[in-house]
Write a structure and sequence with these properties.
By secondary structure, this protein is an alpha+beta fold. The protein is 44% helix and 22% strand. It has 8 helices and 11 strands. Strands 1-8-3-6 form a 4-stranded antiparallel beta sheet, with no helix packed on it. Strands 2-7-4-5 form a 4-stranded antiparallel beta sheet. Strands 9-11-10 form a 3-stranded antiparallel beta sheet. Strand 10 and strand 11 form a beta hairpin. It starts with 18 loop residues before the first helix and ends with a helix.
Length: 226
């Protein structure tokens, strides 16, 4: 009988496998460190599946005029690219947000194991189900989240776009512009920013917010429940 993980989104992928299958799953893998802002996957890349040993990865899509939409944040111990192990590559890009250590898996080996080992297939399915729940959460948080959660998502989205262009997690926006973006008032946003600044997640200056701790900021988004 298969043992499925709890319903939550904190998936330690390797913990879903027996010791023997963990060894088999990691055969032929390589470990690399990627700097903040690096792309580890884009739609023209060969199929790629990897584990996040430490760090944070943003999955997003874009359109020709440059606009971007985040579809998920991938955290430590998660499997990224599970879709490619069982089907076609999605039209997504993967951006490293902070310096991250990733274990790139041997795709041929992973696909073989997924097709022959039910425990490994179940683990991939569990991870993909978690990703679906997380993506649904990101859709809902924009309208159903509280001010802190909506602001955290908005700051992450803006800061990660900035990272790709200037190499820093800086948000060039006034408090009024942030308030307009999340459907609130400048005064409420100011209080929320003060709270984030007090716990050293962000720093602020006139017309600018610098994200100091994107992992904790992403944790606020991750904690949203509906």
């Amino acid at each position: 009988m298969l043992a499925f993980s709890p319903v939550g989104d904190d998936i330690d992928f390797l913990s879903l496998l027996s010791a023997a299958n963990r060894r088999r799953f990691l055969e032929g893998s390589t470990q690399s460190v990627y700097p903040a802002g690096a792309h580890v996957f884009h739609p023209d890349s060969p199929p790629k599946t990897f584990l996040i040993d430490r760090g944070l990865v943003r999955a997003y899509t874009t359109v020709p005029d440059g606009r971007q939409a985040t579809v998920g944040f991938r955290h430590a111990k998660e499997l990224v690219g599970g879709t490619m192990a069982v089907s076609h590559a999605p039209n997504l890009l993967a951006q490293v947000v902070v310096d991250s250590s990733l274990t790139t898996l041997d795709m041929a080996n992973v696909r073989h194991l997924v097709s022959t080992e039910i425990e490994i297939l179940a683990a991939v399915a569990t991870q993909l189900a978690s990703r679906l729940r997380h993506s649904t959460r990101l859709i809902a948080i924009r309208t159903l989240g509280n001010i802190r959660e909506r602001l955290a998502y908005d700051l992450l989205e803006r800061a990660m776009r900035s990272q790709l262009s200037v190499g820093r997690l800086d948000v060039s926006a006034t408090q009024y512009e942030l308030a307009q973006s999340i459907g609130s008032s400048r005064e409420v946003v100011s209080r929320a920013l003060s709270g984030l600044r007090a716990i050293e997640i962000v720093d602020t200056a006139p017309g600018m917010v610098r994200v100091i701790d994107p992992i904790r900021l992403a944790g606020i988004v991750r904690a949203f429940e509906f």
